[in-house]
Design goal:
Radius of gyration: 18 Å
Structural class: mainly alpha
Shape: elongated
Length: 142
C-alpha cells in the first residue's frame, strides 16, 4: 500500500513536533508523560504549524508553487498559525486568569479546562520544522 506523500508529511511533522515537545519538557523538568504530549496544546514547537507547513511544502514541490492548491494551502497555513498565536494564546491567557480568580475567591466552582496557545517563536519553530519535513518527505517519496 502506497501512502500519499501529503499525508506522510502531515503525520511526520505532527509526530516530530510532539517528540520534540516531549524532549523540551523533559529538559525543563516538567512532569508530563509522553501520552499527555500527544494531545497537549501549546509548547515548543507548534505541531499545528509544523503540519500545515509540511503539507504546503509538499504541495508546492509536487504541484507547483503557482498552483491554486498551493495558494489555498498557504492561506490555510496562515490562518492556522495566526489562530495559534492570537486567538488560542489569548484564550489560554484568559483561562489562566479565570483559574487564578476562582482560586483567590476560594470558590467551589470547578476549574474549567484552559488550553494553551503558542508564542510567535513556537509557531516559527513549528513552521521551520514543517518546511524541513516537507522537503524530506518530497525527496523521499519521489
Amino acid at each position: 500500500m502506497v501512502m500519499s506523500s501529503y499525508l506522510v508529511a502531515i503525520l511526520a511533522a505532527w509526530c516530530m513536533a510532539h517528540i520534540i515537545k516531549y524532549i523540551v519538557s523533559k529538559v525543563k523538568k516538567e512532569k508530563h508523560g509522553i501520552r499527555s504530549h500527544l494531545f497537549r496544546s501549546g509548547g515548543m514547537p507548534s505541531s499545528h504549524s509544523a503540519s500545515v507547513v509540511a503539507l504546503a511544502s509538499v504541495i508546492g514541490l509536487k504541484d507547483g508553487f503557482g498552483s491554486g492548491l498551493f495558494g489555498l494551502s498557504v492561506l490555510f497555513a496562515m490562518i492556522v498559525m495566526y489562530d495559534a498565536v492570537k486567538v488560542r494564546r489569548s484564550s489560554g491567557e484568559q483561562g489562566d486568569a479565570i483559574h487564578l480568580m476562582i482560586k483567590e475567591l476560594k470558590s467551589n466552582i470547578k476549574l474549567p479546562r484552559s488550553a494553551k496557545g503558542h508564542t510567535p517563536l513556537e509557531v516559527f519553530a513549528g513552521a521551520i520544522l514543517g518546511l524541513l519535513v516537507g522537503i524530506v518527505v518530497f525527496f523521499a517519496t519521489t
